[in-house]
Design brief:
single chain, mainly alpha, 4 helices
Amino acid sequence: MTEDFGMEAAVSLEAMMERHIAALSATSEAVREWDERRAAGDVTNVVYANALLKVTKEEEAARLKIVNHRPCNDQQGWQKLIYLAAYLFATRGSLKPEEMDAVLSTTEPVE
């Protein structure tokens, strides 16, 4: 039974990662569209800025779910760490100190 629970949690982490990737793609698409409109001479309006803010907030929420996720085993802990490392490399970003604390506290080895 505990193995089934572990599999459900693993699927949940994978689903969170897929959702985050989709949010990153939506943000990237919104920025690309904004750049195209600006290059074409279109005026950037408040509605479009609000749409960009919305997708950015969705990306942040999806990322924070992963950051705060407590893995059920060491394998899932490694999966979380590898995903976040890849995200940080790809975006050339960093985590806030409280996010880093959450990652470290939720990925301690399971004994």
